[in-house]
Amino acid sequence: MRTYRTRRSGLRIFGYLVATLLVVSGLVLVGYSFLIRDPFASATVFAQNPPSNATMTLTVPEMQRVDDVPVYTGPVHDKGALHDGTLHLNSTGFPWQRGANVYIAGHRMGFPGTRSYLVFWDLNTLEDGDKVILTDANGTRYTYSMFRSVILNPDDASYITRPVPGKSIVSLQTCTLPDYAQRLIVQAELTDVR
After folding, report:
1. Cβ contacts of residue 164 below 8 Å, gap of 6+?
2. Has domain 49-193 been given CATH number 2.120.10.30?
3. Does residue 22 or residue 136 have the better pLDDT?
4. Is 66 within 8 Å of 60 (Cβ atoms)?
5. Running DSSP on this structure, what letter comes out for residue 3?
6. Per-domain residue ranges for the chain?
7. Which residues does 67 contact at the CB level (< 8 Å), separation at least 6?
C-alpha cells in the first residue's frame, strides 16, 4: 500500500518548525539578557533574602506627610492602593532586586482621612541628596539618595520600566500643579541597606 503526503501533514510540519523557532528565539533572548546583565532578567536570580510578602512602607524625611506610608503592590490602575497609600507598580522591580527601578505612584491631593491625603503634595520640593527610605516586611531599610526629577506627559511611560545602568533606583510619581496635566517623577539611587 502506498502512502501519500497530504497538504495537512505539510502544514503540521511547518507548525512544528515555527513552534521550535519561537522556543529557540525565546531562549536566545533570555540568554542574551543575562549576558548583557539586564536587571529584569537577573533581578530574581540575585535577590537576597526577599521578604515573605511584598508589603513595604515609604518614608521621605524631607516631606511633611511621608512617614511609614503604606506601599501596596498592584497594576497601574489599582485605585484601591492609591486611595489608601501609594502604589508600587507590579510590573517594576523591588528594592531587594539588584538593578531594579522600584516605581511608586501617589496622589498630590488624595483622600481626606486616608494615608493618601496630600501624600506627594510636596514631592516637587525634594533636592539632590534628599533621602527616600523603603522598608520591607522583614524590616530591612533601603535608603536612596535623590539624583533627578523630570516632568513628562501622562502618556509617556518611558520612565516606568527604564532601568538606570549600574544603579538600583526608586522612582516616585505624582501629578504636576496647578492643573495636574503632567507627571512629576523624582528618582533616587540606592545608597544603603540595613
Report:
1. 101, 187, 189
2. no
3. 136
4. yes
5. -
6. 7-36, 49-193
7. 59
Please, are residues 134 and 56 in contact by the beta-carbon 8 Å criterion? yes
117, 110 Cβ separation under 8 angstroms: yes
With the C-alpha atoms ordered 129, 134, 65, 112, is the resulting torsion angle positive or negative? positive
Distance CA 173, CA 87 (A): 10
d(CA 180, CA 173): 12
Query: What tens digit of pLDDT does each residue of 96-155 get?
Result: 999 999 999 999 999 999 999 999 999 999 999 999 999 999 999 999 999 999 999 999
The one-letter code for the residue type at 78 is D
All cell numbers assigned to 20: 521550535
Q: Are 93 and 100 in contact (CB under 8 A)?
A: yes
